[in-house]
């Protein structure tokens, strides 16, 4: 067994966790709930032995059940952050011998050595949280750790419409080709088992080989060299994957293409997609011809927080429905899951793929394997698929952002605040789309402001030629801004306060104060939507007038309201006022 963070044997069951700190006090052995085991040797770190042992104790506490690091991915990720810290300390003139000898100068130097990028922030935060578990860590160092690490946000942007369409089409071509291949051989297998093929014919030999493939995970092979037995080789067409196990199983790249399609539909990261259990079909939906699938999702990074577990229902109502990809994924992986059931594998995963070469010769250290089968996808698998179809790099992360920000427009296993601040606001397409919306909003706000600002002219007394209305005097009755020029104004008397032709003298103040009070009282007896539509603007303009002339004069005007003023206002509000 290696002690440098590499894969170890997996003797434990899927729910069994081995001890974490080995007897020498320098190695941490971490086992997760999936039965995977890693061993991390702190003796290889270039720091004094006392410091090595302290780090091992802290690491073991995090790897222990309930410590916070439930998966191998988490512990292994932090291991690759601890090593650079140890290497940095070893290059100092005064190397600290243990955690209690760390000084603020040590920490500040480490902080300044990190790039102002997400990777630098990850190292900073990871090491700080680990060391802060040690009670011996000096208070000044803790205070130095509390200083905010300023870093530039990533520039990962969502795909444009054409890019997204191209990626989805490429993934669809890859997966569709695999699905049709599996369907063809499934039909051939069914015909062979039903005795519908002529014994000894080429189709019959292929059917017999595919039958063994469906039961064992491989066509009939010689024990040495993994060569197809001579009896079947001519009928199958060769020893390659295309002629053998690919007849019933997806490859790793084909599964990555399926994961891309699921991400396009669900807006999830690669980890929840990889670890998604087989979806459950709701009872009775298949009989109705419209199957509904319940997806169980787990975002491990939200462990201990609300929202870690989520379920979604997807309906397969046709080729363009969200549930169709689930129906096809279940069909494409059915044979692999059947073989796993025969192997008594206690692993419930939707995404299952067949290895191309024996996994001992591959570098996929994080992969869980049962027999010839692997599970799920990661960014490396996504990148391998992308390169195979001429695309640059794994699209999984950017697809998630594209779907949640531009298509679903709602959080995907995030809080609303995180969705808005991390995903939506920095997105350039969102910013561009917001420009006309913001402009329209500003124009609407300006128009609303104009509607609620008192526009009539305040004068000390009426001028000859002005005509009295219910609310003000009018200097130009035939050139109203609310009607065609040259025609008599037919606008509501409530709009006089919004008309530049209107003249308001102190003699009008009592009636207008009474109108303001009546409109306010009306607000409590009509539906809010009705009041907002019919009376709100007039009320706001009168409030603006009140602020202009001052509250003492307004109160005095209200106290001097006459019976004639009250009658005018009552008729005006009932719609039967006439000059």
Strand and helix map with partners:
Elements: E1 4-7, E2 27-31, E3 37-41, H1 49-63, H2 72-90, H3 104-113, H4 118-131, H5 139-145, H6 161-193, H7 202-216, H8 233-236, H9 252-266, H10 270-274, E4 280-281, E5 292-298, E6 309-315, H11 324-342, E7 352-354, E8 369-370, E9 373-375, H12 379-388, H13 396-407, H14 416-424, H15 428-451, E10 457-458, E11 467-468, E12 473-474, E13 502-504, H16 509-522, H17 528-534, H18 536-549, H19 551-559, H20 563-574
Parallel strand pairs: 10-13
Antiparallel strand pairs: 1-3, 2-3, 4-5, 5-6, 7-9, 8-9, 11-12, 12-13
Helix pairs in contact: 2-4, 3-5, 6-7, 6-9, 9-12, 9-13, 16-18, 16-19, 16-20
Beta fraction: 5-15%
Mean pLDDT score: 82
**Uncertain parts:** 1-16, 359-363
Measured distance between first and last alpha carbons: 102 Å
Compute the number of strand runs: 13
Main sheet, how many strands, which sense, barrel? 4 strands, mixed
In helices, the fraction of residues equals 40-55%
- Bulk shape: elongated
Derived structural class: alpha+beta
- Strand arrangement, major sheet: 10-13-12-11
Count of separate DSSP helical elements: 20
Rg over CA atoms, rounded to whole Å, is 37 Å
